[in-house]
Amino acid sequence: MLRSYPRHAHPLRHPPCTNTETERTMKNALKYLPWIVFVLAILSVGQKLASPDTVDSQFNLEAFRQLPVSANGRTKPLDTVARNSLMSISGRQSMRTDDKKFTAIEWYIELITNPKQAIQRNVFRIDHPDVLAMLKLDAEKRTRFSFEEVLTASEEINNQAIRASQTKAKARDPFQRAILVLNERMMLFSRLTQLEMPYLVPPISSGEDWRPFVETLSLNPDDPDARALLNILQSYRDNEVLAFNEQIAQFTQQIDNELGYVAKKSRYEVIFNYVQPFYTALVLYVMAFLFGCFGLLSSQLSSKKELTRALLNSMTALIVVAFVVQTIGITSRVYLQGRPPITNLYSSAVFIGWFGAILGLIIDRQMKIGLGGIMASVIGFGTLIIAHNLGGSNDTMGMMQAVLDSNFWLATHVVVVTIGYSATFFAGFLGISYVLLGVFTKTLDHERGKSLTKMVYGIICFATLTSFVGTVLGGIWADQSWGRFWGWDAKENGAALIVLMNLLILHARWGGMVKDRGVVVLAISCNIVTAWSWFGTNMLGVGLHSYGFTQSAVFWIAMFVLSQLVLMGIGLLPMSLWRSKFQRVKPAPKS
Fold first, then answer.
1. At how many degrees (to 10) do helices 446-482 and 516-534 cross?
2. What residue ranges define each of the domains in the chain, with the CATH number in brackets?
């Protein structure tokens, strides 16, 4: 009689994988996902340092672009001048022809050694249809045109620019603004071509000024620095590679001996330019936000906590790398400027995002649902986008107004006030997350809702302290600088409004006028006040802190205010319309 074996027990068969083994494998894979993401993020950052943005040329343009020069009151490398100039004229830091892509330094050296060729390059970006019509240019196939094409209507452009400049900034129409921009770009192009700026010849001795190249040669043809630069430019023009490389090496050594520390900073700034730490951090924040969103989605759609935890931990890993990269960027700016981290609107935007990342990581340690990380990534990404647009083609490390030239007060008043901005924004964005999760999901139960509200309340307390202390420090600075503590400047009033709004929330909560939902809705309203104080007051055109009226800035501030009002309206919907019912989680019965 034949013995029958169970199918899985046949000696020649392997037992099939069970669900338990598959789940175990999946858990192990998910356990390592955050580490894999962390390592890949570090490698992507390191790759930029390992393969710098070198110039593909037989000429040693790498050394040429590291040469220190002086422009707009600051010593900087030629690389920075070339990048900013091309960005101002063309809207990008490189130039393309039919057969080649030019880096900014290649464009610049062609401009000063072969202007006849350079004026035929399509680098002038012109978008306004009326300006194009006036110049009789066809924009159907391209948006960039050559200086040669634009020059044909230079007289008309100049006349229109004079008329536009006689009109108040707020009253100018889009055509007038476009004409003024084009006229400024043409003037910049001409000054670069004629070597009027930057000042290329270093000072004769410490404490003296940099000198313009053409003027120095005309006054003293035997000046060693000016003569060396002339030989370098002539070698490039004549396509003498060996002579150029030998002369640039000798001149670099000469500059190192004369300037020392200044030359080293110039070389470091070139590295800073091509690494672009803030752009790298921006990309990492976007990736972190996506991981965070997938993590929240997973917590709603899947019962597997391991997947949610892996996604949220991956988000945290990316935020940590972004934070470190951003810290390196801020530290580099401090080194290059010799100033505290915040000196203008651009650096304040970078700093607000940086401190927001700190708060987000702290919140994530307290609440394990990923909200802190998501808020950190949103604020980090948003503020770096703002910084990118504020920087534009300008030198973001330029000279400061004389009245603001105080490292002590920049390191105290300005930093503390900006921390207050960041904390207030973070509380407001946590309030937004409370409203969105409460209205549109079932995520917020009673305990999570309470915990989130406590976080908002705690950050508001911190924001009140820093905003108040920073504002008082600003008053002391003002009193020491021009003899008055308070002058009702728009920026001063904005700072006071932030303090008052934060105090309003605290007192309303203490007095029982609002509860959890009221606290978060009021926190969202603080976003409006903070945006106005931080950014809006600078657009008024009045006061010490004014940087001039900007039409695009007004539009985006208005859109931001409108979005916050809509979110406040959603937060005030009847609780019956909220998907999260904030019911207490009943403890499991004892067996």
1. 30
2. 28-57+276-398 (1.20.120), 61-268 (no CATH), 407-583 (no CATH)
